[in-house]
Amino acid sequence: MKALHKAQHEQLQEIVDNLIQARKEQSFSIEEMAMKTLIRPALLQALEEGRFEDLPEPIFVQGFILRYADALGLNGSSLAEQFIKISDPPELKEVTPEVEPKTNIYIPIFLPYLVLVVFASLVLFYILNSGRKVETISQDANFQQTTKAETKPPQSVTSPSVSIPITQASPTPSTTQSPTPSATPSPTPSPASKQVEVTVELQGKSWLRVVADGKQVFQGILDKGAQKTWTAEKRLLIRSGNAGAVLISTNKQKAKVLGGEGAIKQVVLTPESE
Questions:
Q1: CA separation for the pair 180, 42 (Å, rounded)
Q2: CB of 209 within 8 A of CB of 258?
């Protein structure tokens, strides 16, 4: 790809920085992204290092950005459109004067774009199908880990309750036994009610990561129409790779959009959050 102006270089670097940030947050290496997008690692390395002069024509770079963003759960179409606005079209104007009388010359210029779009759609279809299988396996593993962690605490709680001899205080003060049952039931329901419940509904495809009370309970890509609910006792963290596609409802309140379309946003919710 030919050298860009300073403003074009900065705008393209901003798009690439968003892709790098999303890749590192999801702990993907360049080799893994090359397998997901079917793009050579050398081209991905040149794209991330800002060596745009080593890349092919802008029409191919547009396809790279589209596949790269979709593989990370971002809005690849909007990022590809931003790149189209950045790319400089004067090269096409220099070629068109020689071919002005021939109207059929425009067909070969348009055909490679169509072939690229069809090929990219087939690759994305294959990646999404294979990615769903991996997500289901990881979700099942996370669910088994969380269920094992949840079953262990009750065993440790019951052991001290049996070992503490509460019956020793009963024979000495006969009158003190009457106020204790009336005072104990009142504080027990209050802590159980203090927790945060969040329901998420997807208006489009987005990558999500959910951490409840310091434990990661979900990480993956959800498609449009998916709906999930999580609860936490003290703190619930939600991070999205496409905030405009996420509707979030806290403690059964009215759902709101998490953020802008294609934006990466993170929120932390507590039982007092509205």
A1: 73
A2: no
CATH 1.10.260.40 domain residues, the chain: 6-134
Q: For the sheet with 215-222, list strands across it.
A: 215-222, 206-212, 236-240, 265-269
Query: Amino acid letter at 248?
Result: I
Task: Give phi and psi for 175, each to the nearest 5.
Answer: -80, -25
Alpha-carbon distance of 196 to 187, in angstroms, equals 19
- Is the model's pTM score more than 0.70? no
Rg (CA), the chain: 28
Q: Which amino acid is at 34?
A: A
Task: Report the alpha-carbon distance of residue 68 to residue 19 in Å, rounded.
Answer: 7
- Alpha-carbon span 83 to 90, nearest angstrom: 15
pLDDT in tens, 48-77: 887 877 777 878 888 888 888 888 888 878
Partners of residue 35 on adjacent β-strands: none
Q: How far apart are CA 215 and CA 59, in angstroms?
A: 43
CATH class of 6-134: mainly alpha
Note whether 223 and 207 are within 8 A (CB): no
